[in-house]
Inverse folding.
């Protein structure tokens, strides 16, 4: 049986999960696991050279290795256990502090170098904890290690000279506190950059919307409609599988619509009510469209309708539905006897002609509809 190509991806998903946040947390865990492995290897070297006792060192290595595996399980199934990332970070740091305190008692003359691991632990906190939490963990580490040093110099002042332990503690305190402050500033900077990124994405969404949508009517604007027409021409081009002969013999139609006597609405009732009429017209006309139809504000009170894969009769039925819905509108502030209507010019795209030519013919048909008394549809 041939192995599936998806097996590596499946195995990775099983080990590290599929969600990006979980995978990121487990990547951090993998980095700490490598650090633990390096520390255990160095501890084994100390035992081999006689700098550390074998039995306690083996016990510490076993506890550290088991702890790493336990934290993998807690992180991997944190959603099921309902464990927050902050809590997991604090628990891992406290475990690392405890391991470092135990290793300090075993490391002999190399114990001062071991304290660099503590600085690394606090630096890792910057990825998951707030600055105050990192500072509290630094203080916890100092209290724990300070108590360990004080106890060791009391029990064995020759092996742990008080002056040396005091100066080692001072160096550690300076390193840990400065690291906590720096990681705190880094966290603030990351949060600030994250907020700025979110603001930028929102601004881009707004710009994208303004570039494609008419602000007043929420229909496509003229710029975006040109792009829609270009895409439709490309879709219907021969050889694309959607051109003539592949859509049941139907072509596409365009219609130009103009609200009748709209200037009178603005002159008698003001532009505010005129804007209401435009919004209500867009909502009513849009409700009569088919799924793939696109209605755009072409300019002022003029609108352009694209009806893909529609024969002239079907297109005319759509525009007639629009007329009925628009005539049925009731707009507060407008004369009760006044009904909003529109005139329309409808044209079928001929063969592979540009849509702009079909729009030009629809425009001429629109003028004929106006000249014939308005509130009607004329075919090009």
């Amino acid at each position: 049986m041939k192995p599936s190509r998806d097996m590596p991806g499946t195995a990775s998903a099983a080990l590290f999960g599929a969600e990006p946040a979980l995978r990121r947390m487990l990547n951090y865990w993998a980095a700490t696991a490598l650090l633990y492995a390096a520390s255990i290897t160095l501890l084994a070297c100390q035992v081999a050279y006689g700098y550390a006792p074998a039995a306690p060192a083996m016990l510490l290595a076993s506890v550290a290795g088991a702890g790493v595996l336990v934290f993998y399980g807690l992180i991997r199934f944190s959603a099921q256990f309902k464990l927050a990332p902050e809590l997991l970070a604090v628990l891992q740091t406290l475990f690392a502090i405890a391991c470092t305190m135990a290793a300090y008692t075993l490391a002999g003359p190399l114990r001062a170098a071991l304290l660099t691991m503590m600085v690394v632990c606090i630096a890792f906190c910057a990825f998951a904890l707030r600055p105050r939490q990192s500072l509290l963990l630094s203080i916890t580490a100092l209290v724990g290690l300070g108590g360990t040093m004080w106890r060791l110099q009391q029990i064995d002042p020759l092996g742990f000279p008080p002056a040396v332990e005091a100066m080692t503690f001072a160096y550690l305190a300076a390193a840990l506190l400065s690291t906590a402050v720096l990681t705190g500033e880094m966290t603030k900077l990351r949060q600030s950059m994250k907020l700025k990124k979110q603001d930028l994405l929102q601004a881009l969404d707004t710009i994208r919307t303004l570039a494609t949508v008419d602000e007043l009517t929420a229909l496509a604007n003229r710029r975006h409609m040109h792009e829609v027409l270009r895409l439709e021409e490309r879709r219907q081009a021969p050889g694309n599988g959607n051109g003539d002969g592949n859509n049941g013999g139907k072509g596409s139609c365009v219609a130009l619509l103009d609200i009748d006597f709209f200037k009178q609405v603005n002159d008698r009732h003001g532009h505010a009510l005129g804007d209401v009429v435009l919004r209500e017209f867009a909502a009513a006309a849009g409700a009569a469209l088919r799924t793939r139809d696109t209605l755009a504000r072409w300019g002022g009170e003029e609108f352009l309708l694209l009806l893909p894969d529609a024969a002239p009769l079907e297109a005319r039925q759509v525009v007639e539905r629009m007329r009925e819905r628009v005539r049925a509108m009731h707009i507060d502030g407008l004369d009760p006897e006044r009904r909003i209507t529109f005139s329309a010019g409808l044209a079928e795209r001929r063969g592979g002609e540009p849509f702009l030519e079909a729009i030009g013919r629809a425009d001429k048909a629109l003028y004929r509809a106006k000249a014939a008394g308005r509130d009607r549809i004329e075919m090009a």
In short: Confidence is low (pLDDT under 50) at residues 1-8, 243-248.
